[in-house]
Design goal:
By secondary structure, the protein is mostly beta strands. The protein has one domain. The chain contains no helices and ten strands. The strands form three sheets. It has a four-stranded antiparallel β-sheet with strand order 4-5-6-7, with no helix packed on it. The protein has a three-stranded antiparallel β-sheet with strand order 1-2-3, with no helix packed on it. Strands 8-9-10 form a three-stranded antiparallel β-sheet, with no helix packed on it. The two termini are about 20 Å apart. The relative contact order is 0.16. The mean pLDDT is about 90.
């Protein structure tokens, strides 16, 4: 079983991606155990993980210009080896791709894959600070070539 989320090990607003590999039988850590990815200071949050053969796709958000009140979180997708947790650099040249469609919060969760594509859904243009929000939140649904 693979789990993805975030933790604040670095303290304060500096959240990082947290990915775990656990046994289904008892929930104990196995294989690579825990992988943390901190692409920078600020809110970096993993929203989804999907096993596709020997690879894991992990997707979520990366804070572009922290700290708050800057809300510019961009889409980030990583492809890692499911056994070793090493990045698969043929994906995006570095093992990760980012996209920043709006100046507010954008994020995707991986839903699935077939032989040639990944399928993702999430949100874009989310205003987390202002009440009432100053933006129109939109769904984001993507089909991406692997």
């Amino acid at each position: 079983m693979y789990l993805a989320g975030d933790d604040s090990t670095n303290g304060g607003y500096d959240r990082q991606w947290h990915i775990e590999k656990r046994l289904l039988s008892d929930g104990s850590l196995t294989g690579f155990g825990v992988l943390t990815v901190d692409p920078g200071t600020g809110f970096d949050i993993a929203l989804g993980v999907f096993l596709d053969g020997p690879a894991l796709y992990v997707s979520g958000m990366h804070h572009v210009n922290p700290p708050l009140p800057n809300q510019d979180l961009q889409i980030m997708i990583m492809k890692i080896d499911a056994t070793t947790a090493g990045t698969i650099t043929t994906f995006g040249g570095t093992g990760a791709v980012t996209e920043n469609p709006t100046p507010l919060v954008d994020g995707l969760a991986v839903l699935g894959a077939d032989a040639t594509h990944t399928y993702l859904a999430g949100v874009e243009n989310v205003d987390l600070i202002n009440s009432p929000p100053t933006s129109d939140v939109g769904w984001r649904i993507e089909k991406r070539v692997k």
